[in-house]
Design goal:
Distance between the termini: 49 Å
CATH class of the largest domain: Alpha Beta
CATH topology of the largest domain: Rossmann fold
Number of domains: 3
CATH superfamily of the largest domain: P-loop containing nucleotide triphosphate hydrolases
Number of strands: 12
Structural class: alpha/beta
Radius of gyration: 20 Å
Number of helices: 10
Length: 351
């Protein structure tokens, strides 16, 4: 089941007795889940569950909802900032296996960073931190780290997607919250992403709510800024999209945001397909996509960088474009920079 279908079911957009019954069952399951994750965070805070120091500064980038909120562009922004400051950052990711056993996320991150980057994969972040230190890293960026409490962090950055900030207000599996919203109080910094996708009134109301939840956290806002269209490794100006009939596909937590961005850039969406997050694109899947695109008389296929690295080599009957985006912090950038630099200064020194 793709992410869009999941969203439609959980939001109530899919109606009828069967879907209502499913939502009722999921509601029953949400209670024990929320209690379990609340107890887990409490146990780490009180020291009943042990956390470990990496001996290097650790900056965590995470979110409170399942689905995309812009973690990869944010990690790229941080890595660039730290590299410019003369540091040697390493990015710790969970990792998902890709073509030939190579991690898709690692490959995508290296391309996104646009620089020699140390990316360490593994579900055990403590062990990944040790590996990174052995390879010369002097600061660690923990991707999707808000719920990974075994590794201590010196700065906890939470990303909140303005288009669905609180995951429909319910914990998994009834909603998209990975933890109850009160966990936001643990964040040191909150960045509202896709802040340009909502009205000024909605953004102000969200900012006010976040201040209530985390009064001591610094606040910033950001947008996903399209920067280029990549074709066969060559960057082209995004103006190439204007008036082009494209078939868009992705496997993201928030596919609507991707399709909306293409429309705002002037592309004519001949068709679209949303697949499950971390979807694999084998030859059969690509044949299906191409057949749908041909049926729509599309001139090109277009997808995201996250999806492009998972596409198996294939003889495509039309161009494959990749929309490249970067994180543009539109407010609170200086405060966030200062918080990052303060975390470097206050982190424990290695023994």
């Amino acid at each position: 089941m793709n992410q869009q279908a999941i969203h439609d079911i959980l939001s109530g957009e899919r109606r009828g007795p069967a879907w209502s019954s499913l939502r009722a069952v999921l509601s029953v399951a949400s209670g024990p889940y929320a209690l379990a994750v609340r107890c887990r965070r409490w146990a780490y805070r009180k020291g009943f569950l042990p956390s470990h120091s990496a001996g290097r500064p650790v900056i965590s980038v995470g979110n409170i909802t399942a689905g995309g909120s812009g973690k990869t562009p944010m990690v790229a922004w941080l890595s660039g900032l730290l590299t410019q400051a003369g540091r040697k950052p390493a990015v710790l990711i969970r990792g998902y296996k890709g073509q030939g056993g190579e991690g898709d996320e690692a490959k995508m991150l290296r391309e996104a960073l646009g620089q020699p980057a140390l990316v360490i994969e593994g579900p055990d972040r403590v062990e990944s931190a040790k590996r990174a230190v052995r390879q010369g890293a002097d600061v660690l960026i923990m991707d999707d780290g808000f719920q990974h409490l075994r590794l201590r962090r010196d700065l906890d950055i939470m990303l909140i997607d303005a288009t669905n900030p609180f995951g429909m207000g319910r914990c998994l599996p009834r909603g998209l919250l990975r933890e109850p919203v009160k966990a936001i109080s643990s964040a040191d910094a909150i960045v509202i992403t896709r802040s340009n996708a909502v009205s000024a009134q909605e953004l102000a109301a969200l900012s006010s709510r976040l201040t209530e939840l985390a009064p001591n956290a610094l606040k910033a806002a950001a947008v996903h800024r399209p920067s280029a269209v990549i074709e066969d490794g060559v960057a082209r100006d995004i103006s190439i999209l204007r008036g082009k009939r494209v078939f868009a596909f992705c496997g993201l937590g928030n596919p609507r945001a991707f399709f909306r961005t293409l429309a705002e850039l002037g592309a004519s969406l001949a068709g679209e397909a949303a697949f499950a997050d971390h979807a694999r694109y084998d030859s059969l899947q690509m044949e299906y996509i191409m057949s749908q695109a041909a049926r729509c008389n599309a001139e090109a296929l277009i997808t995201t960088a996250k999806d492009a690295v998972k596409i198996a080599a294939a003889n495509l009957s039309m161009p494959l474009w990749v929309l490249q985006v970067h994180m543009d912090i539109t407010s609170g950038k200086d405060d966030l920079r200062r918080a990052v630099m303060a975390a470097l200064r206050c982190a424990p020194m290695p023994e």
